[in-house]
Each structure stands twice: as structure tokens, then as C-alpha cells.
């Protein structure tokens, strides 16, 4: 097709019919391929044909439609004739093409296996495709373009199709829908052909209503009369007699036929004849016009008489009468219209057709179903806004007072005195009436709209909805009312009235929202289990389909779809529609199938999504725009490779790195509230609820135009309705929130604060948090794009305050296990940082840094520390030497946050929070404490279902609370990094009460969360936390020895191990103690108690695995404590000049007492000897059958940590008294030295000759040179 278009553009002078034939052939081939492919899934194929996806939106069809638009007009005849020849429809006397249906069908291999009905359906699909091409050029036809034989061929095909179709039995599900599409296009094409020549078409019309031709079936008569609806125009003097004759023949046919459906078809054909015959612009009628007008006046009286025969006929004839009045002279219009209005509005319970008639009266000569509007509907370009510029009479013919009086009369009769609910199918019509009234007399209509919303009750909810929807349409610039309304041009008060609407109705919005929330709010109908993404498209205003579906479901009547699902003729179908009061047959047949679905289907999306129990069943992924599944997979690969590299570089390759990943896809699962929708409601109660939901939607839709502060960001903030179980209400909230935020920059700070408060005070699922976070990020992202245009309206102090609160909220949201939520949080941080820096740059020093500044400035440092913390989880931190860390692959926080590796991300989150506590703004830190108090503490103390997602969130919350535990809750309490001796005013006080019971339990996942989070404990609480661990243990033991879990000491030592692994732990040993006992002394006491437990360890016992883990923790704590005391000693010595005999000496050779450090040589010796005994126990179990899983793994770790601990203890100083070390101790130390541990430090060799001799002996051997003995000698020298 591209080649053909190129040929057409560059070689126009050579364009000929061959190019058209080639392009049609190519189109047929591609369409057949597509049809064949789609037939692999028959159900999907039928669905696509029913909703218009195929063939109308098929790529081959779209490409061919584009091609025919550029075909020169002098080739139109060749084009359409070629297309007519391949229509798969047998026409007597018509030429057939060898490239017709048989040629097309050969390219679809499934056809021989299909049922004949299915093959016929495929033929209809090809007919639709052909007509869809023709209808796009037929409006350009004139006598010079289309030859007579082509015109004749058109007419033959059209009426042959109609005759054939009248004999078929139609299934509503797919055949009737296909038929509707085809018939609509034939009607438009016939209308376009009548411009060229209407003789043949009119001959068919006269023939079909000829009573002497008995072979015509009612179905054929109905189809032909409906299909020629667009052929009529205002006649000339020469054509007038023919029109009068046609009217006469139709009236005669009506009088003599007995079929009700044929009578209705005749009446509506008369309507289409009357519509274009306009007498309003004639100052004086000519003779032929007067004759024609008298005929129409006579017809008016005839129609009045016909309308008395039945309710259906009353509806049909009223439409024709209104059309006659709209076209009549004013002398005829004035008295006749007055009479008609009284006739229509005299009853307090108007029928559906009355609303249609009143709307058409107000619209005057604006007729919705014309050839042009039908084509625009097919092309999806139709807009009814032009109607607002019409009146019952031409503009200016009547005075404003006359117009206002008519509007006032309709208001009183149709709204104020009406006693019954508006019929289901007329809700949208009534709104259109209100808008048409407003377009003609805005002042009178606004008074009516205020009246409609006065009573906020279930009984009056419908009136409130009608009024509010009309108000919203009036003030919304996108609806076209403001620019098209008649009164915008002829009423000088129009601007004043429009500007006063927000002040008039904002109070109604508040009251109505409170009313709707009480009846149908989240507390009643529940929270959705689906994601609502920003950037929602505006939903249809139509309410009729929603209410109709509920009405039919509630009443138990069969839907139209079920009635017509079996075989049904066209006439039966029409009769059933009239039985429902849908008397507009021609309009029905002219609408696109999408509109027909809305009218006839009971399965309306909005209703199904609301009334079905709980959330929808299908899975929906979130935040595709921000973080796609493909991007997550890419990040997973990067993280996997990096973590694998970490273990390899540390000498411990790991085969199960993926265990650190948790795939949180946010699938729609079990609703948070069982059966959130009261589906047991029936009858009126069920309809009332749906009406209130429609009203609810309108209130939300109004906010961009009437930004009532209480609803936009106040106590009645509408943001929570993003989570409402009713899908359309949630979608409207999304649209409204975005529009309001964009339209009113001065409200942006308050809107963001309202969203943050919503997060702070609401405990939600991940999918709900994702909905909120996605919208928060989208709003901030929009703000960052246009902030420069609004800089002057923002107070720097307010921006700073919002920045602090935003930092806190987004840090807490990063604790959620789904990567999309974390990604959204990071995006929002980055975008708002751009705004805040533009308004007021922050000082670049600790205590003033926003969270994003820390992420930017300390990215590498943060990644290294987080990686170290993660590796220390497996006790591999000591292997991350400067050399190793220079070769290792670092992961940026944003990368791991955007992956599924939530277990590993915890350490990044903890390090980020720790850095934030060291350098962040105190106000932001206090907000963090408040968010954690509101969200984390209740979440962690009200466990319901423990799954992986809960455990990850719990663990992440614990990390954040530990890292920020030293933050005061109140601003009057200053923030400091100095050690605290009490925590009543700190965040720590809000969660410390549930730590002790957990540590005294066997809840493994809770214990692990606490002890691993201890690594990140706030720097000011190191001492207090260790003291609390001791107190919890002592109090539990004192209260009841029976309640003391044997594992409590294990758990506490595990927590101390995690605490000591932090690289800042060393400061404990050198800072002044704020308690009576130093923190070193307390930890030494825990070590002492552990030594008792670990005596005579037997790896083959049932408790062997637990004791092995305790031994690992014992060795790890001993190593870290020894190293911390050693660095404290060096720190003390570095602060003074140390000389012996006037010569500066290395501190390791000095025998200096360090008061207050709390770990004397004797307890250290005891710990060292236990390490030796543990080594012996491990060696004695080698070769035995260790049935405990992973025992060998833990033993290897234990031996490694024993070596590290021994090395640190001996580096700290000599722990032995005497002239020589015991032989068994030397043997053990030598084994460790051979394993790569430096257990012979210079002080030991300096003090013990037998140790030095052993090292020297080994150093002369080859094994000694490779095992570290030689380096020990060099260190000694």
C-alpha cells in the first residue's frame, strides 16, 4: 500500500484504473490474511466484529481508507464500481468480478470447516468493509463523477441487500449488530446518491408502498423506508408535486395497512420528509410553497388523529408534529405550539416520548439524525454542541421575554410539578433539556437548578444529579456550551451569571458530598482491589445505560439481548423496541453500533464493575508508564549479577541469590472487605443506590470548575475516593484531582499535603498505596514541568515545610515491598527537589539536607555501606577489604529499589534512613517519627495474615523505626546525636514495649526483623538500647523463670551482634557512659552468660543447631567488641604523646590501664579459651553423621568467626599470665594462623618466647611462608 501511495504521489499524471485495481487486490489479500488469523480464536473474532474492531479498525482497512482519500475525483467512478463488483451479494443482471467472494474466500483456509451461518457472517464482514470505504467518498459524488450505469448498480445492490436481509433471522449477539453497521452505511450512501439522481431511489420507495404489490413483506417495507431516510431535501418548485404525492401515498398506505410496525415506519418516513422543508426563512410564501405548507398543516392534523390510537403511535406522530412546527411560519407556530405544550405537559407523570418531544421543541430546526450527523458518528467526529445555538424559532424572531416565559413554563410543568422519577431511558434527555433551556434563558434555568438541589435526600437524588450535571456542563469550557449557547450572544448578563455559579453552588457541593458519602461512601461500599492510574480518559456522560441495566436486573425482566438472542425478524425486533417505548426506529438504525451496545446491552461495564462482588477478577499491573514489567526484569538481572559478584569477591559463591527477591505484582486479589457491594438490594433501593453513585460522580467532576476548598484539600478531601470500590467513581476522582491541580497552582501545596495526610492516617494494602503514590508522583511531576511560571505564588517557608513532610512520607513508602511504589517514591522525591531548590535552595551542610540531597551527594557512600550491611548479614563484612571493594560492583539505590529484590533493599533503606538521621532536617525527621507512629506501629501490632509481603513490610518498618528511634516527637524537644539515658519523648518509646515479648518468643520472622534492624539503631540510642536489652532480660527472668524462653539470651546476643556489626559501633567504647554501668560492661555480661550456655557443646544433640548459631553470635560479638575497645585505646593514645625513655613507642607495646572500658584480661581469656573449646568440638564432629540440615554450613561459619574473634582478642592485648603459653593453645593458634588469621600479633610474640619460637620455626618452612607465619615475624620486627 505504501508503494501504491508513493506511485500515486510521484506519478499522478500516469494514474489509471490499474493502480486502483492493484490497490483493491492488495487490500483484499491483507484483509483475508487478517480474517484468517483472527479466526484462530472464533470467540474473539465475533467479539471484534460486534464492537467494530474488525474489519473497521483493521490495519489493512485503515490503510486502504487512507489511500482512497487521495484518489483523484475523476477516478471515483472506477473506484466504486470496482468495489461494487466484488460485493459478495447476488444481484440480478449485475456483472460479477473474478476477484469476488470466491477469490477472497480461497485465502481463508478455515472456511471449508465452518458452518454455513458462520460463512455468511464472514461475507457480511466483507460487505461492511467495502461499504466503509465507499461511504468515505460518497459525500463528494456529483453528476460528473458517477456514471449512470454505476448509479444504477449502486441502487440495485442496496435494494437487493435490503430485500435479502428482510428474509433473514437475526441473532442479536453478532448478526444483528453486523446488519446495523451495514444498513447505516447503505442509508448514507443512498442519501449521497440521491444528490446525483433520486429518480431510481424514489421509484423504489413508491414501489414498496404500492398496496397492489402484495409480494412486499412488512420487514422489507420497514427496511426500505428506514434506509432511504437521508434522500430527502427541501424541494424546488418542480419537485414539490412529487413530494406532495409521496406524502399522500404514505398517508394512504398508513390508512390501509394493518401492521403496526409498518405504520410506525411510515410515520417516521414522513418525519424525514418533513425535516428539511423549512418555511421559517421565507418572508412571503410563493404559490407552490403555500400549497406544500397547506399539505403539511393538513398532515399535522392527520398525525394528531393517528396519535390517539396507541401510546407508541403518539410518540412517533408527536416527533413529526414537532418537526412541522419547527419549520412552519410563525403565524402557524405560535398558537399551535402553545396547544402542543399544554397537551404534552398537562400530566404530572410524563411518558418518555414527552421528554424527547420537549427537547426537539427547544432545539427547533436542529435535528440529530441527518445524513451529515450519521456520517460524523461513523467517523467518530460528531459533537452535539451546535444544538446550543438553536431555539424553537430562528434566533431573533421572538423576544427574550417570550423565550424566558416558555422556559419558565417548561420548568414548572416538567420539573417542579412532576411527581414521578424520570424514566430510565430519558435521564440523559432530561439533562439535554436543562442545557437547552439554559442556552436560551440562563437566569431562569439557574433558578430551576438551584431548586432541584435544595432537598438532599435519597428521594430527590435524581433531581440533584440532573441539576448538578447540567451545571457542570454549563461551566465546563470543554463541553462547548459557553461558546455556543444562544444567550451568550444576546443576553448581556450572561458573563455575570456564569461567574456567579461557583458562589451559588459550592455550598450544595459540600452538603451533597456528605450525603453521598453517608449512603455510598467507602465506609459503606468498601475499598477497591484494583489499581487506578493517573491519566484516565474522560468517561461517557451517559447515565441511561447504567440505570437501565440495574432496572432490568432488579425487576427480573429479560433484557433486550436475551429477548433477541434467539431468532428474530427485523419487524419483531422493532415491535419489541416500541414496546419498551423506544419509538425512534430511524434514529436507532442510524446510530453506530457502539451506541447500540450502550442502549441494548445489559452488560454495561460500569454497572458490572460495581454490582459484582468485590474487585474485578483479572490481573492488572500498575505503573506501567513509570516502571514497566520489562524494566523491572532488567533491574532484576542487574541486581542478581551484582549480588552474585559480591559473594564471589568475598570468596563465598552463592547459588541461591534469587531468594532475596520477592515478586510483588500487585495482582487483584481478595477484596479487603468481604462482599463490599450490597448486591442483595433489589427494586427501588437498588436503583436509588446507582443514582446516588451517578450523583457522587458529578460532585467529583464539578471540583475543577468549583474548587470548594473543603473538598479539594480540606476535611472532606475527595482523594480517598481514588480507592472507592465503584470503578467509575474512582476514575472520575483521578481525572478531577489532576484537572484541579493543574488549573489552580495556588492550591497545589494544600492538595499535596492532603494526599500526605491521607497516607499518614490510613492503613492500606499495597495496591491502594500504589494508586495514591502513582497519583502523587504524577501531580508532582506535572508541577516540576511548569513551576517556573508560578514561582512567585509559592511561599518559600511553605515549600520547605511541605518538602519536610514529603521526605518523611516517601521514605516510609519505600518500605513497601512492591518496586513500583518505591520507584514512584523516588521519582516524587527527585521531581519535588527540583521545585524546592528553585524556590529556596538549602544550605549544603548536615542538619539541613533534604532526603534527595543525601541521595545525590552520598550515593556511592550509601551504596557501599548498604552493601557492607547486607554482606554482614552472612558475616562476610570482614572480607570486604579496600582491595575487594575497589573491584566490587556497586548497586545504586534506585536500581535495587526498582527491582524485585525487596529483601536486599531493606539494607539500602536502613542505610538511607541512618544517613538521614545524621544529616537530615530535624523537622523532616519528626515527620518521619509521626508517620511511623501512625502507620508502622499499628501495622506491626495487629497481625492478621502473615505472608511474605507482610513480613517484608514489617521488617522494613522495623528498620526505619530503629534508624529513627532517637528522633523526638515534639518540636520543643531538640534533636541531637548525643546519647540519651531515657526515651519517653522519642519515637523509640512508641514501639519498645513490644520488643521484649518478641525477643522472649520463638516467632522467628519477628525476631529476625528486630535483630537485623538493630544494625541501624539510631546513634544516640546505642547505650540505651543495650541497657534495655539487659533490663528486658532481667525483668523477664525476675518476674517468672517459667516464662523466660531459653532462646531469649540467644535472641538478645543476636541483636547485639547485629548492633556491633555496624561500622559506627566503635564510638560506644570511647564515648562517656550515661548509665552507671558502661555499655561495654553490659555486653561483657551477656558474653559471660553465653559462655555458660555454650559449655560442652554437642553438635549431635537436638539443640545443636541453635547452640551453633549462638556460638557464631558469641564469636562475632567478641570480635567486634575487642576491635572496638582496641580502636578506643588507639583513640586515647592518639590524643597524647606517649614516650618511654624519651623515645616514642608503638601503643601496642605499652602496658597502660584504660579505665572505664570494661573488658578486663581475665574475662577476655575466658572468652578466648571458649573459642578454643568450640574449635575442638567442631573438629570432633567431623566425620560423624550430622543429621541436622545446614549444620556443616554453620560449622564452617563458626570456624571462620572463631578465627576473626581470636585475632581481634589477641590484637587487643595479652590475656595470659606466666612465662609461656600452654602447648595446646600454641597448637590451636598455629592452626588458625595456617588458615589465614593473624593470631600472633607483636605483643604476644613480645611477651612469650615459646610463641615467638613457634612462629620462627614455622616461618622457615615452605608451608609457613605461605600461611602467614613469615608476615608475623615481619610485623614483630
Automatic annotation (TrEMBL):
It holds the Pfam family MOR2-PAG1_N. Coiled coil: none annotated. InterPro entries: ARM-type_fold (IPR016024), Cell_morpho_N (IPR025614), Furry/Tao3/Mor2 (IPR039867). Residues 132-496 form the Cell morphogenesis protein N-terminal domain. GO terms for cellular component: cell cortex; site of polarized growth. Signal peptide: none annotated. GO terms for biological process: cell morphogenesis. PANTHER family: FURRY-RELATED, PROTEIN FURRY. This is Cell morphogenesis protein N-terminal domain-containing protein.
Amino acid at each position: 500500500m505504501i508503494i501504491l501511495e508513493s506511485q500515486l504521489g510521484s506519478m499522478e499524471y500516469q494514474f489509471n484504473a490499474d493502480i486502483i485495481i492493484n490497490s483493491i487486490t492488495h487490500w483484499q489479500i491483507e484483509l483475508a490474511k487478517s480474517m484468517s488469523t483472527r479466526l484462530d480464536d472464533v470467540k474473539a473474532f465475533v467479539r471484534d466484529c460486534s464492537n467494530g474492531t474488525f474489519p473497521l479498525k483493521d490495519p489493512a482497512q485503515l490503510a486502504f481508507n487512507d489511500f482512497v482519500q487521495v484518489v483523484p475525483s475523476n477516478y471515483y467512478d472506477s473506484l466504486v464500481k470496482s468495489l461494487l463488483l466484488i460485493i459478495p451479494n447476488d444481484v440480478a443482471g449485475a456483472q460479477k468480478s473474478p476477484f469476488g467472494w470466491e477469490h477472497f474466500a480461497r485465502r481463508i483456509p478455515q472456511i471449508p470447516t465452518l458452518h454455513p451461518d458462520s460463512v455468511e457472517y464472514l461475507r457480511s464482514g466483507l460487505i461492511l468493509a467495502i461499504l466503509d470505504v465507499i461511504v468515505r467518498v460518497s459525500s463528494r459524488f456529483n453528476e460528473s463523477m458517477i456514471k449512470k450505469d454505476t448509479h444504477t448498480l449502486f441502487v440495485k445492490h442496496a435494494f437487493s441487500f435490503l430485500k435479502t436481509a428482510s428474509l433473514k433471522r437475526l441473532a442479536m449477539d453478532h448478526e444483528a449488530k453486523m446488519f446495523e453497521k451495514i444498513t447505516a452505511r447503505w442509508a448514507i450512501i443512498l442519501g449521497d446518491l440521491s444528490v446525483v439522481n433520486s429518480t431510481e431511489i424514489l421509484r423504489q420507495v413508491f414501489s414498496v408502498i404500492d398496496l397492489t404489490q402484495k409480494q412486499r413483506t412488512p420487514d422489507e417495507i420497514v427496511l426500505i423506508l428506514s434506509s432511504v431516510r437521508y434522500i430527502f431535501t427541501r424541494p424546488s418548485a418542480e419537485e414539490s408535486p412529487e413530494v406532495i404525492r409521496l406524502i399522500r401515498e404514505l398517508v394512504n398506505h398508513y390508512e390501509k395497512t394493518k401492521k403496526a410496525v409498518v405504520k410506525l415506519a411510515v410515520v417516521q418516513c414522513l418525519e424525514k420528509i418533513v425535516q428539511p422543508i423549512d418555511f421559517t426563512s421565507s418572508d412571503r410564501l410563493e404559490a407552490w410553497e403555500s400549497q406544500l405548507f397547506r399539505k403539511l398543516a393538513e398532515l399535522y392534523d392527520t398525525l394528531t388523529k393517528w396519535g390517539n390510537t396507541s401510546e407508541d403511535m403518539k410518540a412517533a406522530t408527536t416527533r413529526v408534529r414537532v418537526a412541522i412546527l419547527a419549520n412552519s411560519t410563525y403565524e402557524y407556530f405560535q398558537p399551535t405550539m402553545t396547544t402542543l405544550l399544554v397537551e404534552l405537559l398537562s400530566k404530572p407523570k410524563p411518558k418518555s416520548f414527552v421528554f424527547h418531544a420537549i427537547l426537539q421543541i427547544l432545539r427547533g430546526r436542529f435535528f440529530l439524525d441527518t445524513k451529515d450527523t450519521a456520517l460524523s458518528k461513523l467517523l467518530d467526529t460528531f459533537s452535539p454542541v451546535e444544538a446550543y445555538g438553536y431555539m424553537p424559532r430562528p434566533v431573533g424572531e421572538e423576544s427574550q421575554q417570550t423565550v424566558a416565559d416558555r422556559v419558565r413554563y417548561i420548568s414548572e410543568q416538567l420539573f417542579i410539578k412532576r411527581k414521578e422519577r424520570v424514566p430510565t431511558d430519558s435521564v440523559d434527555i432530561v439533562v439535554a433539556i436543562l442545557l437547552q433551556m439554559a442556552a436560551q434563558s440562563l437566569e431562569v434555568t439557574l433558578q430551576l437548578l438551584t431548586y432541584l438541589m435544595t432537598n438532599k435526600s435519597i428521594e430527590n437524588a435524581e433531581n440533584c444529579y440532573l441539576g448538578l450535571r447540567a451545571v457542570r456542563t454549563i461551566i465546563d469550557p470543554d463541553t462547548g456550551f459557553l461558546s455556543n449557547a444562544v444567550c451568550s450572544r444576546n443576553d448581556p448578563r450572561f458573563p455575570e451569571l456564569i461567574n456567579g455559579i461557583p458562589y451559588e453552588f459550592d455550598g450544595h457541593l459540600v452538603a451533597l458530598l456528605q450525603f453521598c458519602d453517608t449512603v455510598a461512601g467507602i465506609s459503606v461500599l468498601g475499598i477497591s482491589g484494583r489499581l487506578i492510574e493517573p491519566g484516565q480518559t474522560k468517561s461517557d456522560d451517559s447515565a441511561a445505560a447504567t440505570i437501565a441495566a440495574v432496572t432490568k436486573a432488579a425487576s427480573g425482566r429479560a433484557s433486550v439481548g436475551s429477548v433477541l438472542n434467539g431468532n428474530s425478524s427485523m419487524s419483531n425486533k422493532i415491535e419489541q423496541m416500541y414496546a419498551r417505548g423506544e419509538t425512534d426506529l430511524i434514529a436507532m438504525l442510524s446510530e453506530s453500533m457502539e451506541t447500540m451496545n450502550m442502549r441494548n446491552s445489559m452488560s454495561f461495564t460500569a454497572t458490572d464493575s460495581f454490582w459484582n462482588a468485590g474487585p474485578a477478577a483479572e490481573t492488572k499491573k500498575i505503573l506501567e508508564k513509570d516502571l514497566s514489567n520489562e524494566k523491572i526484569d532488567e533491574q532484576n538481572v542487574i541486581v542478581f549479577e551484582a549480588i552474585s559478584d559480591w559473594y564471589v569477591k568475598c570468596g563465598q559463591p552463592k547459588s541461591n541469590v534469587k531468594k532475596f527477591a520477592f515478586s510483588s505484582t500487585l495482582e487483584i486479589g481478595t477484596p479487603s472487605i468481604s462482599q463490599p457491594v450490597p448486591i442483595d438490594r433489589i427494586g427501588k433501593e437498588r436503583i436509588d443506590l446507582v443514582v446516588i453513585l451517578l450523583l457522587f460522580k458529578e460532585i467529583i467532576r464539578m471540583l475543577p470548575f468549583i474548587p470548594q476548598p473543603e473538598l479539594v484539600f480540606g476535611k472532606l478531601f475527595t482523594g480517598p475516593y481514588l480507592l472507592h470500590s465503584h470503578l467509575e467513581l474512582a476514575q472520575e476522582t483521578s481525572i478531577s484531582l489532576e484537572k484541579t491541580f493543574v488549573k489552580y497552582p495556588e492550591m497545589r501545596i494544600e492538595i499535596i499535603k492532603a494526599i500526605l495526610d491521607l497516607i499518614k492516617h490510613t492503613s492500606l494494602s499495597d495496591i491502594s498505596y500504589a494508586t495514591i503514590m502513582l497519583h502523587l508522583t504524577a501531580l508532582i511531576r506535572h508541577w516540576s514541568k511548569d513551576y517556573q511560571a508560578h514561582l512567585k505564588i509559592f511561599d518559600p517557608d511553605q515549600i520547605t515545610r511541605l518538602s519536610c513532610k514529603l521526605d518523611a512520607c516517601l521514605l516510609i513508602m519505600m518500605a513497601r515491598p512492591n518496586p513500583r511504589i518505591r520507584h514512584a517514591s523516588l521519582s516524587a522525591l527527585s521531581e519535588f527537589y527540583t521545585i524546592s531548590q528553585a524556590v529556596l535552595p538549602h544550605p549544603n551542610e548536615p542538619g539541613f539536607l533534604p532526603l534527595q540531597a543525601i541521595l545525590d551527594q552520598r550515593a556511592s557512600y550509601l551504596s557501599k555501606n548498604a552493601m557492607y550491611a547486607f554482606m554482614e548479614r552472612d558475616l562476610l563484612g570482614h572480607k570486604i577489604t579496600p582491595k575487594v571493594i575497589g573491584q566490587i560492583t556497586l548497586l545504586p539505590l534506585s536500581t535495587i529499589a526498582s527491582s524485585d529484590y525487596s529483601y536486599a533493599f531493606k539494607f539500602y533503606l536502613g542505610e538511607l534512613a541512618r544517613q538521614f538521621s545524621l544529616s537530615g532536617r530535624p523537622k523532616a525527621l519528626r515527620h518521619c517519627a509521626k508517620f511511623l507512629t501512625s502507620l508502622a506501629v499499628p501495622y506491626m501490632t495487629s497481625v492478621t495474615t502473615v505472608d511474605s509481603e507482610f513480613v517484608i513490610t514489617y521488617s522494613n518498618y522495623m528498620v526505619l523505626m530503629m534508624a529513627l528511634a532517637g528522633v523526638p516527637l515534639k518540636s520543643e524537644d531538640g534533636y541531637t546525636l548525643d546519647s540519651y539515658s531515657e526515651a519517653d519523648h522519642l519515637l523509640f518509646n512508641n514501639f519498645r514495649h513490644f520488643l521484649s515479648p518478641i525477643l522472649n518468643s520463638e516467632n522467628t520472622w519477628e525476631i529476625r526483623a528486630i535483630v537485623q534492624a538493630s544494625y541501624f539503631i539510631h546513634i544516640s540510642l546505642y547505650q540505651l538500647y543495650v541497657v534495655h536489652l539487659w533490663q528486658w532480660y532481667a525483668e523477664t527472668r525476675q518476674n517468672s523463670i517459667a516464662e523466660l524462653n531459653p532462646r531469649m539470651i540467644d535472641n538478645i546476643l543476636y541483636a547485639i551482634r547485629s548492633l556491633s556489626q555496624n561500622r559506627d559501633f566503635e564510638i560506644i567504647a570511647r564515648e562517656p557512659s550515661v548509665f552507671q554501668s558502661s555499655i561495654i560492661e553490659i555486653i561483657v555480661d551477656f558474653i559471660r552468660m553465653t559462655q555458660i550456655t555454650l559449655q560442652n557443646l554437642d553438635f549431635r544433640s537436638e539443640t545443636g543447631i541453635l547452640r551453633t548459631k549462638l556460638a557464631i553470635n558469641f564469636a562475632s560479638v567478641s570480635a567486634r567488641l575487642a576491635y572496638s575497645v582496641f580502636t578506643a585505646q588507639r583513640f586515647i593514645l592518639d590524643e597524647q604523646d606517649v614516650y618511654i625513655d624519651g623515645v616514642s613507642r608503638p601503643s601496642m607495646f605499652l602496658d597502660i590501664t584504660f579505665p572505664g572500658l570494661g573488658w578486663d584480661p581475665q574475662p577476655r581469656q575466658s572468652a578466648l579459651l571458649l573459642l578454643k573449646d568450640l574449635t575442638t568440638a567442631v573438629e570432633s564432629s567431623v566425620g560423624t553423621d550430622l543429621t541436622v540440615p545446614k549444620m556443616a554450613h554453620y560449622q564452617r561459619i563458626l570456624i571462620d568467626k572463631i578465627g576473626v574473634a581470636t585475632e581481634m582478642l589477641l590484637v587487643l592485648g595479652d590475656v595470659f599470665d606466666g612465662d609461656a603459653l600452654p602447648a595446646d593453645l600454641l597448637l590451636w593458634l598455629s592452626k588458625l594462623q595456617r588458615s589465614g588469621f593473624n593470631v600472633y600479633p607483636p605483643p604476644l610474640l613480645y611477651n612469650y618466647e615459646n610463641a615467638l619460637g613457634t612462629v620462627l620455626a614455622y616461618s622457615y618452612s615452605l608451608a609457613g611462608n605461605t600461611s602467614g607465619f613469615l608476615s608475623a615475624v615481619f610485623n614483630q620486627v
